[in-house]
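WARN retry 2 of 3 for item q-0093 after timeout on previous attempt; input resubmitted unchanged.
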Amino acid sequence: MSNTACANALRKLSLTNIEREVIIGCVLGDGTLSEAGKNYRLRIEHQSSHRAYVDWKYQYLSRLCINAPKYVKQHNSYRFGTIGHPEITQLREEIYEADGKKTVPESIIKKITPLSIAVWFMDDGYKIHHTVGVAVHCFKMEDIVRLQKMLNNMEICTRIQQDGQGLRLYVKTSSYLIFEKLVKPYMVKVPCMAYKLILTP
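OK item q-0093 returned
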C-alpha cells in the first residue's frame, strides 16, 4: 500500500482517548500542529539525548503515523509526525487563534487528564528548589489562569511567577507530592526525563 493510500485509511480512524490526551499534552508543550493537505498533523521533535521520550510518545501515537521516529542531523534530534487527521484539525481549530498563537479554551481544559499533564510537564517543566514549575511563555494570562484553576481542582496549588523568559506556573511546595503522584506513573517509564522531578521515595 502506498503512503497516500495508507494515510487515507488512517484518516478514517477515530482518535482513541489516550491518543487525544497525548496530543493535547504535546500541544500544551513543545508539539506543533502543522498543515498536511486539507488537514493538520502533530509533529514531535526532541533533542537526541531524549530519544527515549520521542519513542515513548511514538508508542502512544504510532497508529496515526506512517514513519517511525528518525534522526535529524541538522538539529541533533529525533522527530516524527502523524498523518493529517480531521480530529487533529478540529483540535487545531480549538487551540490556535487566527494569528497562529496557542490558547487554552474551556473546551480543551475539560479534556486535560493526568496523562496530558505528564506530557506537558515533561515538555516544559523543570525543578525549582524543592518543587517544580511549568513554563507557560506562549499563553495569555487568561489561559494561564484557566490552567491554574484546572490544577487547583486536582488539589495542586500553584503561583504565577516570572522566570527568565516569561511566565511559569510554580507548584507550591505543599502541593509537590500531589503533583508528583499525578505524573510519576507516566514519567517512571521515561527515565531520561526523571531529572525534572524531585523523585521522593
